[in-house]
Specification:
Length: 176
């Protein structure tokens, strides 16, 4: 007799696998950048558009906010607790939302590892940023794989919520 799959467990496994892939890719990329480039050193990949630039960010997203790693460490921990709570409220069949949460969680953990262990003392670290884009003289603040995962995860979550709300409106109206 076949065993029934637990949809809630499947959802957790999806999110956990996505988060683990992001954490491993982020850590590997940051370790390579730290070993290959000195801080502020840059290697042009596509001249005038994309460079790998080793930067240490003690501030918030895109270098915004105060340069206080402890504030961002505590904020990251609080955000992770909130994500776990929010994840528990998701319906198991909303796979896109679980992937989105895996991306957001993996990115948050990736940057949190830097903040906790990336300095001279624990909790005094800075996030390693290295993806550096500019277009026609307009420079985007450097970022990393974890930042990208968070951004894509939030976008996917909003897109999924939009699709869900449209589906509910269509179902309620009786049209398909």
């Amino acid at each position: 007799m076949p065993t029934q799959r637990n949809p809630r467990l499947d959802a957790v496994l999806w999110a956990a696998c996505v988060a683990l892939v992001i954490i491993l890719a982020d850590r590997a990329a940051k370790l390579i950048i730290v070993r290959v480039l000195e801080v502020h050193e840059s290697i042009p990949v596509i001249k005038g558009f994309f460079s790998l630039t080793h930067l240490r960010n003690r501030a918030g997203v895109f270098g915004l906010g105060p340069q206080n790693p402890l504030i961002f460490t505590v904020a990251s921990c609080a955000a992770l607790v909130f994500l776990v709570y929010l994840f528990r409220t998701l319906e198991p069949q909303r796979r896109l939302q679980h992937v989105a949460f895996g991306l957001i969680t993996g990115g948050a953990v990736g940057n949190l590892i830097d903040r906790v262990f990336g300095g001279e003392r624990v909790f005094q670290g800075a996030v390693t940023d290295f993806l550096d884009f500019s277009i026609r003289g307009h420079h985007w603040p450097p970022f990393n794989i974890a930042d990208s995962a968070i951004t894509v995860g939030v976008g996917l979550f909003l897109f999924s919520a939009f699709l869900s709300s449209r589906r509910e409106v269509t179902d309620a109206s009786g049209y398909s």
